[in-house]
Structure formats: structure tokens, C-alpha cells
Amino acid sequence: MNQIAPRGKTDGLYDRVRHLVPEMEWETFVEDIRAIETLKRERNAVILAHNYQTPEIFHCVSDIRGDSLALAREAQNTDADVIVMAGVHFMAETAKMLNPRSTVLIPDLKAGCSLADSITGADVRLLRQRYPGVPVVTYVNTSAEVKAESDICCTSGNAKRVVESLGTDRVIMIPDEYLARNIEAETGIKMITWAGHCEVHERFTPGEIERMRADHPGLVVLAHPECPPEVVAVSDFSGSTAMMDDYVRDHKGGRILLVTECSMSDNLAVRYPQTQFIRPCNMCPHMKRITLANIRQSLENMTHEVTLDPAMASRARRAVERMLAI
Ligand code: SF4
């Protein structure tokens, strides 16, 4: 064994993730973790990590953790000179939009999102022409260009509140068709939808959930609202990753199936060891492009900087800030 691993373990970090990260794997992480901590101090940088990041990123180097909404709020408030987004590209754009003073870095430019890729600003303009006067609510999982064409943004955590705040009987809700259908079922407000889907959540099926219930008596099923409505219908609770976190915190123990991306259960298992997390899960290939090694490179080389056209960013910011004000 080399010298680095034992010292890495004694600083307490390994204790956080020892149930998830084998010792041999940890040894490969330690050097990057130390280098990242040093670089953060030198650059006055913070790392924002989405709930779908792997435990060694989420629990060992990130400063701010959460769902898209929490990361957007924190990006707005931080006085760091550099923000590294351990998430996907649209999240880095949102951080830049809300904090233009900071340099925003994404460790891998290919960390995209099937929802964000499903729609363009031109598509939104066409929808407006087809449905004049109907407000456009845009999920944050979109490019800044699409946000700039929207009236207001939403996340999976506040979509119901945002839609109800508009006081209309119809809204254009883009691009996640399933989120829109799930919110329509909750609110009774008619949704004009777009055929965008999350490639992680669309793969879950009601049959899979029923099989898991048969195999694990007493199972409580929490589904993300990006899942198809038939999946949400056979679940016990539906909510954003932050709402899942709150649910697990408030209902200590038991057997829980989180119908979402794989790292969510891993990350909650660190904080709630008394809860038994039953998996299957689906992995997001975009989130998994972010690694300790490319976070380190990102801070060493100040890559890849996310920039936005100021006029477009200002229009997009309006839609995001309108959401944050609700
Ligand atoms: S989990 Fe789905 S919505 Fe989230 S980044 Fe991956 S593809 Fe996009």
C-alpha cells in the first residue's frame, strides 16, 4: 500500500463513504481529493454537486450539494471567484446566468441532458405562435437559449406551485412531457406539452415497481416526477430529489425504493444508515462524465469555462428569477 491512502483515511473522509467505496478504489481517489482541496483554496473556488453525483464527489469534495433548485439558489449567493459545476451543462449555464461575476467551469463539456437537447429556442417561438397568450413554463433542464424564450422556469420541486401561481387554465409546459402530465394530474390545469423525456426516468415501468413490491414486503416507493405517469401512479410518493431526501429524513428506517438515478440512493445511504435502500436504479451517463480527475483538471487548467451572450442571459435570468421569487 502506498503512503497516500492511510493519511487519506485518517482525515475522516473515508468514513463517510466506506460502505460504498471499496478501499482499493479509495486509494485511487485520495490524491485527486487532496489536490482539489488545495486548488479550491488557491482559486477561491466552490464545487456545486448535484444529488446524482457519485459519493466520492458528493461527500468528499463538494461544498454545496442538492437538486437543481438548491444549486441555482446557492450559485446566486456564493461570493466565490470560481464555481465548478459537478452536474450537467444546463446547470453550469444557470449558475453563470445567476452569478455573472464568477467564472463557471464544467469539467466535461459533453455532460449534457436528453431533456435539454430535446428543444431549441426556435421551437419555443413556434409554440408561442401556435398558442398565443398561453404562458410558457420551462423546466430548468433546458439551455439558456430556451429559458430566454420563456415566461418562467420551474424545477421538479416547485413545478406545481409555479403553474398554479400563473392563474390560467392552460399552460405550455416544456420540455418534459411526463413532468407536465404529472403536474396536470395534480393541479387539473391543462398542459400543452413537448415530447422531451429524461432518458434515465423514462426507462422505469409499473411492472418493475410491482415486482419489487412483491419481492420486498413493506417497500415504500418514491418516484421522481420525470417518470412516466403510470409509474408515478403505482408509487407511494412523488417528488424531486430534495423532497425524497426530506421524506427519508422524516420517515426514519424501513425499506425504500427511490425511482430515480442510482447515486441518489448511495448518497442518502451515507446520511441515513438506518434506512434500507432497495435498488434497481438507472444511471445518468451525462452526470457520470464528471469525475474527481476531471474536476481536478478543471481547477488546474480553468477549463471548461461556460460563457453566455449577455443579452440572452439577461432574458433567461428573468425567467429563472421569477421562479426563485415564488
Ligand atoms: S438524469 Fe435525466 S434529466 Fe437529469 S441530467 Fe440525466 S438525462 Fe438529464
Give a verbal description of the structure.
The protein folds into three domains: 8-111 and 287-301, Rossmann fold (3-Layer(aba) Sandwich); 116-196, Rossmann fold (3-Layer(aba) Sandwich); 201-278, 3-Layer(aba) Sandwich (Rossmann fold), CATH 3.40.50.10800. With 326 residues, it is α/β, with parallel strands linked by helices. The protein is built from 16 helices and twelve strands. Iron/sulfur cluster is lined by residues 88, 113-115, 141, 198-200, 261, 284, 286-287. Residues 88, 113-115, 141, 198-200, 261, 284, 286-287 line the site of iron/sulfur cluster (SF4). It is found in: Cytoplasm.
In short:
With 326 residues, this protein is of the alpha/beta class. It contains 16 helices and 12 strands.
How is this fold's topology laid out?
Layout: H1 4-10, H2 13-17, H3 23-43, E1 45-50, H4 55-58, E2 64-66, H5 68-77, E3 82-86, H6 89-98, E4 103-105, H7 121-130, E5 136-139, H8 144-148, E6 152-154, H9 159-165, E7 170-174, H10 177-187, E8 190-193, H11 206-215, E9 220-223, H12 229-233, E10 237-238, H13 241-250, E11 255-259, H14 262-271, E12 276-278, H15 292-301, H16 310-324
Parallel strand pairs: 1-2, 1-3, 3-4, 5-6, 5-7, 7-8, 9-10, 9-11, 11-12
Bound molecules: iron/sulfur cluster.
The site of iron/sulfur cluster has 12 residues, from loops.
